[in-house]
């Protein structure tokens, strides 16, 4: 079995440094089972420096890491070296002392996901996302001492909320700011990449086999009488990791379902807007010139746009005006030609004088307003 994975270092002083560098997840750079095992193995009161440069990742995996940090018996100090975004930002707010590099960035946003299936499945998906947001809002609210609903209103509004170290300190997200070597990056993406590249993996040792004596130094294995007992504990850790993988699959399915549901809802809304606009244009309440204006109103507030269209008075169509003005051959001739055709033929004045109602109708059809005769 491996003595450690690459993002954990131990100093001769006994201090353990855990690097949460990269995405969180069961198959990602930062795995909850590894982090939890190291934290559980730490002696009571042992100094643990947890350094973060992560864009986040799986919510359930992140919550597992969050709980492991909170429940650890070690003296944990958290440092945001580069980026603590999304779930990584929540991990940083676990209640332990947290410091932030003056070049670092913190980001919070609402839970995202997707799902597919029938209405009941979609409702369950939405309920699960809402429950996750409730949990995360409680975590953040306890850190910055505001109500969970205020957290949702401010940070779970669909936007990414980035904070500099100064802004995070002013908002009580972190306890202090520490100096760091200057970096060239300005954007969160640049900062994330630079700090990840700085992480040096320890050189592989020629003998990475840990015997039972060494293993029993870890709290989880202290009571193991023999190798078989140690293997039982390892099996338990693997089972916990498998359960976490199952949760990952469920979250992925929910994310897919939610995305498909959102696309279907938007398509239905677009079809309903089109039907209202088509009907209004047919009866003369709007025309091609001002149609886009009413479409924008419908997109902003469907009910307001619907009411605005309903308040408009329908206008008679060109065909109705022709019927009212008679069915002579001359009227038919006027009807068969467009405004532009009559204009090119120089017959608009003739139309105005001989069939004023037809002239008005064609004018309205062309310009969307009444002519000044």
UniProtKB/TrEMBL annotation:
**One MF term from GO for this chain?**
serine-type endopeptidase activity
InterPro entries per record = ClpP, ClpP/crotonase-like_dom_sf, ClpP/TepA
Q: Which UniProt keywords apply?
A: Coiled coil, Cytoplasm, Hydrolase, Protease, Serine protease
| Coiled-coil regions listed in the entry | 237-271
Pfam families, A to Z: CLP_protease
Query: Which GO cellular component does the record give, naming just one?
Result: endopeptidase Clp complex
The text of the family note is: Belongs to the peptidase S14 family.
PANTHER family recorded for this chain? Answer: ATP-DEPENDENT CLP PROTEASE PROTEOLYTIC SUBUNIT
Q: What is the official name of this protein in its record?
A: ATP-dependent Clp protease proteolytic subunit
């Amino acid at each position: 079995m491996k003595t450690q994975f690459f993002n954990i270092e131990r100093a001769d002083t006994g201090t353990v440094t855990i690097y949460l560098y990269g995405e969180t997840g069961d198959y990602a750079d930062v795995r909850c089972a590894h982090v939890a095992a190291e934290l559980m193995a730490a002696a009571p009161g042992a100094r643990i420096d947890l350094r973060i440069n992560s864009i986040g990742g799986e919510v359930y995996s992140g919550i597992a890491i969050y709980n492991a940090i909170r429940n650890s018996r070690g003296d944990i100090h958290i440092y945001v070296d580069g980026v603590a975004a999304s779930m990584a930002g929540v991990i940083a707010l676990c209640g332990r002392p947290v410091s932030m590099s003056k070049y670092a960035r913190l980001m919070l946003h609402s839970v995202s996901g997707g799902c597919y299936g029938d209405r009941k499945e979609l409702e369950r998906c939405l309920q699960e996302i809402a429950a996750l947001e409730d949990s995360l809002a409680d975590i953040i609210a306890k850190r910055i001492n505001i109500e969970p609903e205020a957290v949702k209103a401010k940070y779970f509004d669909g936007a990414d909320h980035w904070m500099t170290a100064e802004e995070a300190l002013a908002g009580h997200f972190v306890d202090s700011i520490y100096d760091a070597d200057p970096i060239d990056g300005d954007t969160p993406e640049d900062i994330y990449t630079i700090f990840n590249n700085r992480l040096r993996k320890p050189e592989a040792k020629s003998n990475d086999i840990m015997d039972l004596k060494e293993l029993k130094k870890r709290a989880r294995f202290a009571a193991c009488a023999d190798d078989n007992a140690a293997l039982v504990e390892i099996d338990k850790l693997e089972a916990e990791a498998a359960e976490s993988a199952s949760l990952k699959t469920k979250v992925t399915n929910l994310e897919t379902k939610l995305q498909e549901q959102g696309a279907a809802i938007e398509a239905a809304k677009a079809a309903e807007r089109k039907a209202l606009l088509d009907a209004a244009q047919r009866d003369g309440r709007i025309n091609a010139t001002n149609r886009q204006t009413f479409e924008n109103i419908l997109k902003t507030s469907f009910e307001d746009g619907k009411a605005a269209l309903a308040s408009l008075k329908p206008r008679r169509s060109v065909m109705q005006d022709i019927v009212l003005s008679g069915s002579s051959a001359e009227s038919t001739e006027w009807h068969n030609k467009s405004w532009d055709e009559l204009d090119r033929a120089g017959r608009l004045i003739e139309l105005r004088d001989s069939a004023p109602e037809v002239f008005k109708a064609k004018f309205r059809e062309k310009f969307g307003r009444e002519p000044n005769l």
